[in-house]
Every structure is written in C-alpha cells, then in structure tokens.
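Lecture 7, part B: from sequences to assemblies.

Below are the input chains for today's worked example.
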Amino acid sequence: MSTMLSVKDVRKTYEGGGDALKGVSLDIPEGEILALLGPNGAGKTTLISIICGLSTMTGGSVTVGGHDVIRDFRAARRLIGLVPQEIALEPFERVQNTVRLSRGLFGLPAKDGKIEEVLRRLSLWDKRNEPIRSLSGGMKRRVLIAKALAHEPRVLFLDEPTAGVDVELRKDMWDIVRDLQSQGVTIILTTHYIEEAEAIADRIGVINKGEILLVEETGALMKRMGKKQMILELTDPVETIPEGLSHWSLEIGDAPNELIYTYDAQSERTGINRLFADLKTAGLTLRDLTTRQSSLEEIFVGLVHKEDAA
Ligand SMILES: Nc1ncnc2c1ncn2[C@@H]1O[C@H](COP(=O)(O)OP(=O)(O)OP(=O)(O)O)[C@@H](O)[C@H]1O
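Predicted structure of the full complex, as structure tokens:
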C-alpha cells in the first residue's frame, strides 16, 4: 500500500519552552487507522498541528499524499480533514450551512449531494436547519466531524474525538471511523482511552516527551509485550511457595489458596505440564485454573514508566 503520510525527523522547540518534539519519524500507509497514545504534554497535538500546517516545525519534513506541507501547502492541506479537540463552532449558524461553508473554504464548488451524504452518515440530516447552539455536546462533536469531511479529505485527524462522550456515541464514532476507512480514508486519532486504540486501530504509536517510543501493529504489540497470567486455584491454602516450586515465577494471590503464574504471552504454554507435575510433587492439588492477559493499558503504563525512569 502506498504511503499517505510521511513524517521525517520532525522537531519542535517552542519559544521559551522546551523541546515538544525531538525528531519524530513516522510513515502511515493509505487506509490505515493509527492511534497515537501518550500522556498529557507528550506532543500529540503539536505533531498534528505541524502536519496540518497550523504550527511551524523547527526541523524535519512532512509530506501528505506526496505533497510537502510547507512547499506545497495548499495541495497538502486539501487532502487533510481535522477534527480538533476543542469545540469551536459558530453558535447561531445552522448545521447545514456551517458544513457547506467549510467546503467553500477550500475553494471547492458547492456539492449539496455530498453535504447531504455527510450529514446523513453522521445522523445530522434531521438537524440540518437547527442552530448549533441548540445541539447537545455529542451532536456538536458530530458537526465537527461533518465539517472536517465536507471537502472529501483523504486523511482525517481526530484529536481526542471521544473525550467526554458517552459510551453509545463513542461506539458510534468508531463505526464512522471504520466506515471512512472502508472508503480508503487514512485516519490518525489521538486518544487517552486505551481501549479505544485497542478496539479500532490497525497500529498504535506511543509517544512520550516528544519522542515516538514505538509504532506497532495492535495485535502484534499485545502479543509481544503482553504477559499472560495463570491463576491456579488450589484445594488448600498455602502460606509460602513450597521449596520445590521456587524456580517458577509464582506468587500467592489475593486468596491464600491461589497461586499466580506469570509467563510471556509469546512463549505460549511451554513448560506448563512440568509446572503441574512439580505442583503434584509438592503435594498441592489443583481445583481450578483461569488465565488472563495483560491489557494494553498495563503495557502502555509499563512503557512510559520505563522511559521516565531511564
Ligand atoms: N504554544 C505553546 N507554547 C509553549 N509550549 C507549548 C505550546 N503548546 C504546547 N506546548 C508544550 O509542548 C509540549 C507538548 O504539548 P502537546 O499539547 O503537543 O501535548 P499533547 O500530547 O497533545 O498533550 P494532551 O494530551 O494534554 O493534549 C508540552 O510540554 C506543552 O506544554
């Protein structure tokens, strides 16, 4: 698949501030959904602002659809739709007009069929003649997306699209994002909701203190970094780990008859039969067995903390 967005060694130093981006490089293929995860102040908004031409870079280069965002700003910007974090809409303007206006800003001819399609897709068609101020917060967020889609962009940036949005609307947003992807739109979203990244992103990028720590396919990341735990429920409680089991990474769980065995998700179940044999030799009897895999949240927290400690 061809590269839609290419970010090369982008640096940003704010005047009087520190380095917000310290040489970020990232290639995103056409039609991908990439989630950028990072704690507050990591540099997510700065990166998006630079790609969209709203902020200057101190160094590096960015191309969108092959167009350099500085030298060829108009062509690059024409391909981009941006859904900002903050709701900034004209309260007295009507829904359909505000979306139409956004298309006009790109110098494109009015295309009411397209505007209708966008409004219908976002369940805003019935509200098209209502003033923005009469809409709920969730509906306003939909209007922001409609505005960003009015000029038929090929790359869509969503900066915290579901912050403060209820669960139902969040799921709806995910459907909209997937739908856009099926039309070949490339999507980059920033989020604080790790389960959101896990649910919809093809790849996850983790950014911290202006540096990309990793960019990896979601499933592979979970598999590579995830730990699995096996909870061994015993018929009788134990006070300490028996001598014959000390070479296994076992801990006593919340209940005294629970042993927790932690192993790499990658290594599958190698050695587990031996563990069972050793349990038996130590005189322990199993009553039940459950497994759990660490969440992306645990992986993320581990990554960012490791980096902070370094
Ligand atoms: N206009 C500015 N002037 C000076 N420093 C800034 C400016 N904008 C952002 N910064 C600093 O740059 C760094 C990155 O900020 P940025 O807003 O890009 O982070 P973020 O990852 O989007 O955070 P959040 O998740 O809180 O939105 C932070 O240290 C921030 O304080």
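Note for the exam: The chain is about 35% helix and 30% strand. Keep this in mind when comparing with the next example.
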